Amino acid sequence: RGTKLHIANFVHGADGLGNMNFPTPTGKAIEQTAAAFLVSNANLYPGQVTVVALGPLTNIAL
Question: Measured between alpha carbons, how far is 45 from 49 in angstroms, rounded to an integer?
Answer without folding.
Answer: 6
